[in-house]
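Repro:
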Amino acid sequence: MMEKKEGMSRRQFLTYTLMGTGGFLLSGMMVPMVRFAIDPVLQPKAAAADFVEVGTLDEFTTTPIKKTFTLERMDGWYLDKAKLSAYISKSEAGEILALSPICKHLGCTIAWEGGGRENKYYCPCHDGEYTPDGVNVPGTPPPLPLDEYTVEIKDNKVYLGALRQRGGA
């Protein structure tokens, strides 16, 4: 009679070894992918957008002035210093309006009273026009009004914050 040996057979040993090695290699590939997928959830929430000083309240009039400023922001994994600009004007009621100089049609840079236009923003790419309050002129290429910066006024100084998109006119 055959005597049954106690322990593990050669076949079981090879099966367990191959399954263990395969599981180890698979987990080595999956852990970085899972970490990449859930990393945004693990990051701390960003604080409210920082405001940047662009001038005093007295220097702005109803005629838009182009102001350039530097903003520090996280770009991926490194801190970047972005050079941005805005057209800033004051309404008759004294409210400050800060508009992005980027055309909503093709992303070209607009100019105040450019291309022979008076009292309008002008985009040279396809003759786009905007009114002084940044609304796109009907019959010209831009589909949307210019984006607007969040404005805050403290101690007679004007600060610009996050850029927000405005709806269609």
